[in-house]
Amino acid sequence: MCVVCGCGSPVAPQGVEAQVDARTGDLHFGAGAARATVPGLSAERTVRIEQDVLGANDRVARQNRAHFRSHGVRALNLVSSPGSGKTTLLCATIRALQRSHPQVPLAVIEGDQQTTHDAERIRATGASAIQVNTGKGCHLDAPMVAQAFARLPLHGRAHDHHGHEHEHEHEHEHEHEHEHEHEHEHEHASPSLLFIENVGNLVCPALWDLGEEAKVVILSVTEGEDKPLKYPDMFAAAQLMVLAKTDLLPHLQFDVQRCEAYARRVNPGIRILRLSATTGEGMDAWLQWLLARE
Amino acid sequence: MHELSLAGNILALVEGAAVREAFTRVLQIRLEVGRFAAVEVPALRFALESLAPGTVLEGAEVVIDEPPGSAVCPGCGRGVEIVARGDPCPCCGAYGLMPRSGDALRVVDLQVV
Q1: CA separation (Å) from A6 to A11, B56, B96?
Q2: Rounded to whole angstroms, how far apart are CA atoms A67 and A142?
Q3: In the prediction, which pLDDT does A172 show?
Q4: Nearest in space to B87 (alpha carbons), one of B35, B47, B41, B44
Q5: Contact (Cβ atoms closer than 8 angstroms) between residue A290 and residue A275
């Protein structure tokens, strides 16, 4: 008798196969690898997935990118090994911008595993900063940046500028597209700068798109000149390499030409700036690059 | 170091598929990790095995395809296969090759029950 409805049909429900005991004729459903059967589904099958492992991050990164663009924010993802002088460079950059371009709004998202030291250093310059502590995480990801950006005055400023209602802010945080924002793109009086200082790590942050306009890799001359070859993924992902702490060159055996050639070997299109936050050498070219619109 | 995060992403992706496609266990998971995906394959495998117990991936065989990377040489214009970023062109020795493929990092398919 049919076990499903009692209709007397000898046929088992289609698609569900039972193991048959050869001696007694007993039927064992749920004897497959799953130890369970679902009517209507065959036991073993292939499910095509074809999805990027980083797809969820990349979707949020695209939202961030659209969000930044609609607010006239140029977001830069600063990456380097620990101790290259990212925060020192940022503090010097902020002070220089405050002098030469006080009308340019700027903000910083500081990524570290722990402590709020770097955000405090940035705030001491008068610029706004949000510290993102990743705990054990070795990189920032797009959702972290989305949350941090929502808390920055840079974000609120754009809304004030447009005279949007507050409720509107909540709305677009969860939306996939920002079509309502795009209309206002041309209205921005001056572009603003968002520096995202990633966790000091020359490996992992290369993979995570945060929605930035460009990655800037900072390499200090106290590190090896062959770092571009040792950590090629990061140098390949960056648009600009800042060779930092150049004031120390007289004390070091660091071949600048060789370092730059190595960087171009893994990324022929990379731009390179030599800079010292201490003496100000190269600062003008850096500011020019920062303020240039695409 | 980031392979554990990636393994977490993979698990989330598979768990999403389990709800959508109504399966309870994965017998085999097939991944594609390109040469330039910046992923250490043994570390990813280890991370997946560490996360699997108690999930749909418990006991699943992890198959990882590693397609080679290709690039077009700016020197001789040939399409060539390269092993590492920064390698010279195997034909003419020129540097500055940018990979055109080999950076994929995706879940291809699952054998499920």
Answers
A1: 11, 34, 73
A2: 12
A3: 46
A4: B35
A5: no
Report ipTM for this prediction. Answer: 0.90
Task: Calculate mean pLDDT across residues A267-276.
Answer: 97
Residue of B85, B103, B111 best to disrupt the A interface, most CBs of A under 10 A: B85
Cα separation of A70 and A275, whole Å?
A: 31
Count other Cβ atoms within 10 Å, centred on residue A115: 11
* Closest by CA position to A35, among listed B11, B111, B23: B23
Cα–Cα distance, A53 to B32 (Å, whole number): 10
Nearest to B113 among A44, A207, A232 (CB): A44
What residue has token string 């079509």?
A: A179
Q: Is the pLDDT confidence value at A183 over 50? A: no
d(CA B65, CA B32): 5
Which residues in A have their CB inside 8 Å of a CB on B?
Answer: 32-34, 36, 38, 41, 43-57, 137-139, 141, 201, 203-204, 206-207, 228-229, 232-233, 236, 262, 264-269
Q: How confident is the model at residue B53 (pLDDT cuts 50, 70, 90)?
A: very high
Sign of the four-CA dihedral A195, A200, A206, A208:
negative
Residue in the block written with tokens 């600063």: A78
Separation CA B48–CA B25 (nearest Å): 15
Q: What's the average model confidence in pLDDT over A140-151?
A: 95
Nearest CA distance, A233 vs chain B (angstrom): 7
Q: How many CB atoms lie within 10 A of CB B73?
A: 21
The dihedral sign for the CA sequence A29, A31, A37, A40: negative
Mean pLDDT along residues A138-156? 92
